[in-house]
Amino acid sequence: MTDERSAERDRRRERGEPVPADLARGLAEAARDKKAEGIVILDLRGLTSMADYFVVATVTTDVHARAVAEGVRMWAAETLEERPWHVEGDEGGRNWVLLDYVDVVVHLMQPDVRIYYALERLWGDAPREEVGDGEEG
């Protein structure tokens, strides 16, 4: 899978696709627009080759997970003509939906799953950016 991911990353960069940091922020804001909570962007550059960024967000229900995932996909498709390279969890139980944009992986997790897997703690060495809920005055 790593070779496939590397090849896809090279193809995307050759096509001049968005800078990963900008993509991560845009995907995080799209999740926020659909009322995802506790959104954090983890900068994994220098820590792993699997992705440059993780966007981690909490969703409250299966319906909410589906709505946030669809909102994120629509934003990426309409704004950047980007489609996820791989998607998991969007069928059946939706307590964790993963949208893989190669350089950026979005994790939409229900609270108990987010606590259990503790991605922020697992990647504790990664610089992090918290994305506000957009309701500040």
Instruction: Compute the separation of the termini in Å.
Output: 45 Å
Overall domain count:
1
Q: How much helical structure, as a percent, in the residues?
A: 40-55%
CATH topology: Beta Polymerase, domain 2
Give an overview of the whole structure.
The chain is α+β, with helices and mostly antiparallel strands. It has one domain: Beta Polymerase, domain 2. The chain is 42% helix and 23% strand. The protein contains five helices and six strands. It has a six-stranded mixed sheet. Helix 2 crosses helix 3. The longest helix has 19 residues. It is globular and about 40 Å long. The N and C termini lie far apart (45 Å).
Task: Report a brief summary of the structure.
The chain has 137 residues and is of the alpha+beta class.
Please specify the SSE layout and strand pairing.
Layout: H1 2-14, H2 20-33, E1 37-43, E2 53-58, H3 62-80, E3 86-88, E4 96-100, E5 104-109, H4 111-117, H5 119-122, E6 128-131
Parallel strand pairs: 2-5
Antiparallel strand pairs: 1-2, 1-6, 3-4, 4-5
Helix pairs in contact: 2-3
Keywords:
single chain; 137 residues; alpha+beta; Beta Polymerase, domain 2; six-stranded mixed β-sheet; 5 helices; 42% helix; 23% strand
